[in-house]
Amino acid sequence: MFKIKYHSILLLLIILSNDLSAQNSFSIVSGQEKASILIDKKDAKVVEIAADILARDIHHISNKTIEINTVGKFSIIAGTLGKSKWIDGLVSKQKIDISQVKGKWETYKIEVVENPFKGIEKALVIVGSDRRATAYGLLEVSRMLNVSPWEWWADVTPDKKEELILSIHTKIYGEPSVKYRGVFLNDEDWGLQRWAALNYEPETGDMGPKTYAKVFELLLRLRANTIWPAMHRSTKPFYSYPENKQVADDYAIVIGTSHAEPMLSNINTEWNHETMGEYRYDTNSEVIKNLFKKRVKETAKFENIYTTGMRGEHDSPMIVGEDDTDQQVKLLEKIITDQRAILKQETKKNPNTIPQAFVPYKEVLTYYQNGLNLPEDITLVWTDDNYGYIRQLSTPDEQKRKGGAGVYYHTSYWGRPHDYLWLNSTNPVLMWEEMSKAYEFKSRDLWILNCGDIKPHEYNIELFLDMAWDMKPFEKSVSVKEHMKTWATREFGAHIASETTNLLFENNRLSYIRRPEFMAWSEVEPVTKAGETTLTQYHYGDEVTCKINAYEIIVETAERLYKKVPENRKAAFYQLVYYPVIGASKLSEKWLYFYKNKFVSQQGKLSANFYSEQSENAYNRILKETDYYNKTLAEGKWNHIMTMQPRFLPVFSKPAYAVVGSKEKPTLGIALEGYEMEVNHDIVNSFADVLPVFNSYTDNHYFMDIFLKGEGKVEWKAIPKSDWIKISETEGILTNVNSKQEKRLWVSIDWDKVPTGENKKEAPLGHDFQLIPPSYKVNSAIDFVSADSTVTIGVSVFNPKLKVLEGYKGFIEDKGFVSIHAENPTRNITGKEAKWEIYDGMGYTGKVIAALPRSTSSITDLNLIQKNSPSLEYDFYTFNFGEVDLNLQAVPTHAIHEGRGVRCAVSIDDAEPVLVDFQTFGRSDTWKQNVLKNASVQSVKQIVNKAGKHTLKVWMVDSGVMLDQILIDLGGWKKSYAFPSETKKRN
């Protein structure tokens, strides 16, 4: 009896389960059956546009044509509440529940409804709270079919399928996290505008309505709703083409303008000095107001966000009679008052019902900070400093403003200290960190991304707009990597998604350390020639060569993955991954090899010629790939879109190289890590003929360069005088062939074979690591033998077996410094209200550690800091003592708002905590160097009172501080671009 009941219940559950599954499935294409799309012709134009896009996507996948507005057995019914007979009919028949949609902003619901109307057996119903919501809902179906938003803009060709059957679970989408979300097309001179004028829209010879229609389609697919149109002199003003504003309205895209374009006007191209006079409000306000009135009148019936306030022409400060901040503030207040009066006059609406924005950009932030009275309903749009670091966010009082706040953020920029207009070199995790911070501080009304020419910013655009649509999936830094992997899976397939993500993360890490566009160590405004690199070539493994090697690895990875990409996605992979990685790598390599050429030529090395050849090869590779992008990729679809040298700056040119020649007899040259010059064969016991000391606690390895001097060839052998010396190669031949003129050898130690120094409890004492007592050092050498000479290179190892270090887990002094990655504390101690948390994907090492939550109040009282603040403790051990320089490298963020800072407190052992402040102000020289390097380094003096064990303590003062690296310099650090590798204790 029990068995019968059990099996009957089980069977019933299976049947019910199957029935539920069937109820939630919807067939778009199956065999000969095809669904239709039903919309109301009286609904908004954007609904019709979105329906056409969906039908086109379905055709691309299945080769089946979907009918629109033909009732079928299966129908996709889409409409806007109150605007669609289909949706309103379902509501009246109580077939759908709209309680979670009605009255909401851009909210839509998708569900399957059985027998909704006569003749329809099953419908996929999309109901939108407004016109954009309905369009987003239709394009959500494209997303479900795995159609990329970049299917046209990056040629992500959909996979072909014979059947399209969706599993639908009733779901509400929205409201969006940010009300207005969009992009600013900027610095379009070298790509987007040329492509439109010469390729895509030659009939206009410009970015006109045809081009903007494709941009607006992309925005709809990305669930964006706002654009700041292109505004450089190369492009005619957006409103000079009457069709532009109508196309924008058809696609339901809201038009706004940048900080330099008040009231939807394009001052850069619309202001005519000959007929309109000087662009300054204190002397020519009536003419300026007439321009504002004209624009408001022609745009009044459309959706707009009017930028209030005023700056000078083309991103310059406003011209006023007196250089007095108070006068500038008063004038700006009058301008805003006049602008609002114009809005009221021309729209017949109360200004507080019209979306307006005020952008405190550059000097305008100073005016705002000096008491500018801004109407409560205007949205405060905070900006980054043009390099990805938001300058200020809303205080608790500002967060209560009716108009709320937003953010204008850059992933492309023209200006000092240097442009980055070609590649997307903004780290996406940094962008996540700054935008999630903005969201936390209630900047949720307008997000605009300056994305330049759109390409190659595709991934960061999608990440930015996905966050703006819904911040919930982006609570942690790891969310970015998860998002990118999902993106890569959609675009290229699951089989290479993880590798592609890792490739891009490494490319982003390298670009974070130094953007490729900054690799010439030049600046702009004024433009300077290529400068001297601050990367060291003879300390810490040779930073230049280490970077070359890192870039070579990602180039090889990109080339390998490209071969694995399915044919229908190769063009997409090329645009979204391959070209950006190759471009970044080769621009960097061009300059890195140039620095090698310059450095070794000063040593008289023939290998200088090899390095010049490698630099030129990198330059030529960029030429080749850019030519392919423009002329061959997608059969020339993108011709003129990609320019490898925007503004023709020195960083993009081919450098002038040094040439080294010699008719001398061939001899062997040797240069060692740690020395700028080569070993002098003629001087016995030259100070440049000994490798740096090997430390058994940190397991060093050092390089030796052997190179050809003169014409001919040299056979060489390296003969270690002790069996514990390991060399990467022990013999070879150097010749005049470019790649054979020089060889880098690596020397390391087999510690199991090294004689042990004295076994004592205490550490050796000394103020110079090289002066360690002899009993702790073991000396040997390597003989380099060539045809006519033997050169001896000294090898010294420090190999005591100190009982005090048995089982020690801390960091160890090496060559007079202790180097620490900040994300590796010995102890992480939670504070009363805050803690330190690791962010993945940022910083020089790929991780930083941040003081969170950001809303935590600053603690500046030193007594309270030690009691209440979260702290990091780093155990370290020194062989020297005395006054030290404690160097801390942080991400160069700005204070969250006035009254906050970018500070932490530090001390070694039980010393009184000392404040460390990373904040910069304005556009100072320090700020310039910080953003060029993506690092703020501050140094404070501390005392290490004895050789032995110590603890560095770091306390939060201001939340939001992100530490990257730490260097305790006991006098041994030789200046380098980045801190040396971590001096961890060897296991």
Task: Please give a structural write-up.
It is a single chain. The chain has 987 residues and is α/β, with parallel strands linked by helices. The chain folds into five domains: 2-173, Chitobiase/beta-hexosaminidase domain 2-like (Chitobiase, domain 2, 2-Layer Sandwich), CATH 3.30.379; 180-472, Alpha-Beta Barrel (TIM Barrel); 512-652, Methane Monooxygenase Hydroxylase, Chain G, domain 1; 667-804, Sandwich (Immunoglobulin-like); 811-969, Jelly Rolls (Sandwich). The chain is 31% helix and 21% strand. It has 21 helices and 37 strands. Strands 11-10-9-16-15-14-13-12 form an eight-stranded parallel beta sheet. Strands 26, 28, 31, 33, 34 and 36 form a six-stranded mixed beta sheet that branches. Strands 27, 29, 30, 32, 35 and 37 form a six-stranded antiparallel beta sheet that branches. A hairpin with a 6-residue loop joins strand 29 (835-840) and strand 30. Helix 18 (570-602) packs antiparallel against helix 19 (607-631). The longest helix is centred in the middle third of the chain and has 33 residues, at 570-602. The chain is globular, with a radius of gyration of 32 Å. The termini are far apart. Residues 1-22 and 765-774 have low confidence and may be disordered.
